[in-house]
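This section describes the prediction task in plain terms. A model, or a person checking by hand, is given the sequence of a single protein chain and must write out its three-dimensional structure as a string of tokens. No templates, partner chains or ligands are provided. The sample shown here is typical of the held-out split.
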Amino acid sequence: MSINSARGAEGNTAAVPIVSVADILERDLDGLIQEWLTRVEKEPDLAAVILSFEDRTGHLPQLIRDVIARLRLDDETKAEVSRAAAHHGDLRVQQGYTLAMAVEESRLLQVSIFTTLHKSQSHLKFETVLPAVVTIADEVDAQLKQQILRFMASDSAKVAGTEKMARVAKIS
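The expected answer:
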């Protein structure tokens, strides 16, 4: 963390600590989750699935920690596939979500992350923001891919089960 001069809201110059995007997301994790939940609750398709706070948001701390970890990697290091995202995909299938709903949740996560960063923009070095936004979008999209793969695996298992039942019925 460094301290730079920045113009405060009243126009005065004050010492403002400069922190990384990862530090802001880590510091504001609870607020970020609340921001996301507020947005989700405004979406009729998502709100129609009645879930407890834990069932709705329980996956977010780890998904966001995966984003934070990705932000802290150097450019040459390949990020690990998010196991939490795959688990989240399985969970949402069980909860009756559609693929479109999973995509919408992911989109709302990105919007919530960017809103959180915007609220803390005075604590960021401008030249670090765009590369971080690219990394965040890439990581959240990679997480969405893992979720979609779990939806597809679930669909394949359902089709295979239906085909097996049809063969058994035909034999009987």
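For orientation: The radius of gyration is 20 Å.
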